[in-house]
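To close the section, here is one more complete example, presented without commentary so you can practise reading it yourself. The ligand is guanosine-5'-triphosphate.
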Amino acid sequence: MLNIQRQYIDYIMKIELELGKLTLDNKFIQSLELAKLSKIVENTELLVPIIGEFSAGKSSLINSFLGKNYLPVKITPETALATELRYSEEEYIDAINNDGTISRFNLNEIDDITNNAHKFKFLKMYINNQNLKTIEPLILVDMPGFESPLDLHNQAIMEYIDRASHYIVLTSVESGTITRSMVRQLTDIQEYNRDFSFFLSKTNLRSRSEAEEVAEILQDQIEEYFDIDKQVILIDDNGGESLQKILLSIEPEQLFSNLFIERLRENYYAITDMLNTKISSFGNDKQRNEEVIAELKESFKKIQDERDRLVNEANERYSNANVNKIVEAVGRELSNSLDELTSLVVHSGEEGMSKAISEITRHTLIIQIKDSMNDISSDIVDSFSTNLTKLNSSMSEFSMSDNWLETITNTTKNMLNSVTSGLNNIVDKREKSGNNDAIYKVITTILATTTEVIAPILELVIIFLPDLLNGLFLSYQQKKQEEQIRNTIMTQVIPSFKRELRIKLPEIFNKQVQEMIKNIGDQFESIIDEKKQTIEETQQEIDSKNIDIQEQINIYKKVNSNITILSNQVLYN
Ligand SMILES: Nc1nc2c(ncn2[C@@H]2O[C@H](COP(=O)(O)OP(=O)(O)OP(=O)(O)O)[C@@H](O)[C@H]2O)c(=O)[nH]1
Ligand SMILES: [Mg+2]
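Output:
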């Protein structure tokens, strides 16, 4: 376990202890689900996919790290499915079926699994290997090469794009360059705010000086494309040690903190907000408390109405214009890549072009949808927020903050913009399924929403393109008639593809926008509802007359100050 994990678990436990000192109606504390949050912190993994061209030596590198050939390695495309590697005393493989169920296999059945790759989404390989235990909570993921079949490759990339913490990228000394395909993928990784380490593999196939020369070329390319200074690490058959070193140097503590910090801050904010409200309610007369409860009820209603209004208007207000902008951007990017697409048809046929179209689409969609969702989510938050301006002065008074509304508005925006998708994605889908606990109802981040839109569109590419391309280029390709190929791409492929996007994208996009509206609305509603309950409960306690109000206020103040000290040490240091 990482230090930061221990620190967070300890922090949550201390918060629980502090809250335990209060004679609180437990509803609020239960809704925080601190024990569960602590368990999630304990069980969270940091996924590290290893990516690169087919046969670059990805599986060999992992085998070298493990000190034993667990993963199949050959000159033919080998890794068909993403394979997560975990430590376990008992050794087996869990294959995640396309419907999410799991089939269990023995390690020696890996070839059977590979031959039936299309039945599965990805694999979890459990092996009794100490090296895996030492890097926990990092989890290595062996990925299929870029050249594996389009659907499997897409599936693997999309499965991890939102969940990966850091990437290991491999290029072999034989290839010696960063391909366009890799450039697109690395750009996507950066769009998701993830970092990568870069290895040059199979250096034993060249002299040392030749290998170093290639590494320098790669470094220059990385600097040119991404404007970053990246050390390229030379490896051969014994790359395991280098991998271990890199894994220890990627600052897993920082990666881990990125996953939880916003969530824990929001949690802290909710707690102090409640404690302050409690203290204020104790100090107020009954009339003032009842006034504010009435204000809260009215605002709750406003939020509900605003939510309905926004959901109804989502299409007109957000989706139509954005979908149009996105489809045009995809069309533009494809037109800009006309030379590349033409040359792919000439040299690797329709399949090669399909892959490029899929990649260009993915790449453009990531940028465009993220951009659109950023604007839209910010507008949604502001729309809800506007409805609460009247409430702000009472709430600032009750929660003892300078500007209550501004704080919750900013907190909500921060959660939307946080790097990782919060618990929705960290938590194993199996645990989550059918689970309606509040703890999972964290605002879905913009990146997660982006992924939700892109995945089905890429499936569409896989289904739609083969029909469209069916034999379209056959005769031109045989005669190497580039001009005709170019023309056909320009006048037939791109327009048809755009038309198809225009049919399919609106529904998928609008559905996500509506979910976002509901999600953000829920967040505002629960904040208001909790406030109302807190004040109501406090007034009931006062009415029951057998409590010492001043004593209660002192207890709450003490707990509040202890919790603030704890959070300053752990969350705001
Ligand atoms: N000479 C040499 N060969 C290597 C090295 N690493 C891997 N190979 C060979 O390269 C071939 C491909 O290696 P893999 O580890 O299967 O490559 P991969 O990247 O996992 O390939 P896919 O899973 O098919 O995408 C195998 O024949 C390996 O034995 C190396 O450092 N030096
Ligand atoms: Mg492999």
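Once you have examined the tokens, check your reading against these statements. DSSP finds 21 helices and nine strands in the chain. Strands lie at 46-52, 83-87, 92-97, 102-105, 120-127, 138-142, 166-172, 195-201, 232-234.
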